[in-house]
Amino acid sequence: MSNLGKIKMTCTCVILALSACGVETAGSAATAAAVKQQEIQQGRETLDRVKQQLQQATQASEQRDRQADEAAR
Fold it and tell me: N or C end of the chain: smaller count of CB under 10 Å?
């Protein structure tokens, strides 16, 4: 193989190696985005549960207050 052929082969190998790195980076970014989306969804679900629990606790407290007022009469 001539020097020119070796240079072309080397350039081709370098280009293929670098393009493979780009594919891995894109795959990693997509995976990270999917994980982040799942974290966001879980956070929303937790927020909804906490809001519901807070509403229930508030209602229970108001009911106890009403019952205490009625008992004091």
Answer: C
Instruction: Fill in the DSSP letter of residue 1.
Output: -
Q: Which residues of 30-66 are buried (b: 16+ CB within 10 A; e: fewer)?
A: eeeeeeeeeeeeeeeeeeeeeeeeeeeeeeeeeeeee
Instruction: Tell me what pLDDT residue 1 has.
Output: 61
Q: Rg of the chain over CA atoms, in angstroms?
A: 32
**Residues, the chain:** 73
Across the range 41-56, mean pLDDT stands at: 96
Give yes or no for residue 52 having a pLDDT over 90: yes
Contact present, 54 and 46 (Cβ < 8 Å): no
